[in-house]
Amino acid sequence: MFRFVKMSTGVAAAGLALAPAALAGQPATAALTPPPPPFYTCMATGEQTICHAQRVFVEDPVDTGIVCGSGEDAFDIWDQGTVHMHATRYYNADGNLTRRVNHERWTPAWWSNPLTGDTVSYTQTDTTTSILATPGDFSLATETTVGENIYRDPRTGAKVLMSVGRQTVTEDGAVEFRSGKQPFLDAFANGDMTVFDDVCAALAE
Fold first, then answer.
1. When comparing pLDDT for 43 and 173, which is higher?
2. pLDDT in tens, 90-108
3. Which DSSP letter does residue 93 get?
4. Residue 1 and residue 3: Cα distance in Å, rounded?
5. Can you spell out the DSSP letters for 41-76?
6. C-alpha to C-alpha distance for 79 and 76, rounded to whole angstroms
7. Which of 15, 135, 25, 9 is nearest to 87 (CA)?
8. What's the rounded Cα separation, in Å, for the pair 123 and 19?
C-alpha cells in the first residue's frame, strides 16, 4: 500500500509468530479460501470460522522512493522499524473469506538519510479492515484504514509530518473516502511532494 499514512513493503520481512489468546469454539476442519498463513489459529464458531494471529516482525531498511533535495545533495528516504500486528480473518459457512481486520503498531521505527545516517523517528498505530466483494477473492476488496502516523524532529521534538484520520480505497485503487490530514494521499494521489519538505529538512541537517 501505501498503507494508512506511509509506505509499506507488506510482511515480507522476517517475522516471529506469537501464541494467540485462547478462542471459544471448535478447531476449524473445513477448507478455507484463501487459506490463512500458518501463523493463524482458526476456530469454527456457529456457521463461520474465525482465525486470529499475533506477530512481531522487523521491516528491514527499504527505499520509500521519496526524494529529498536536488543534484549532488539529493537522497532517497529509507524506512525501517518493528511492527506489532494483531490480525483477524472471518470466513463464511462455505469457507470463503469475507473480511480481514489488521491492527498494527510500529515502534521503534524511523526514516533515514543513507548519505549521513541522520534519522527521524515515527510512531504509527492503525487498523485496516478489508471487505471482500466476492467472498474468497482478495482482488475485489475495499479497504478502510483509520489511525495516526507522526514523525518528529530528533533535535527539537517538533512534529515534521503527521497523518491522521480515515481513508477508504476501493478494489480498483480509487480513493472513495478520506478525512483528517492525509499527506501521503496528497503526495502519491495528487502529486504534491512538498508535504515531505519538513521531514527532508530534518534529515538534511
1. 43
2. 999 999 999 999 999 999 9
3. T
4. 4
5. EEEEETTEEEEEEEEEEEEEEEEEEEEES-GGG-EE
6. 10
7. 15
8. 25
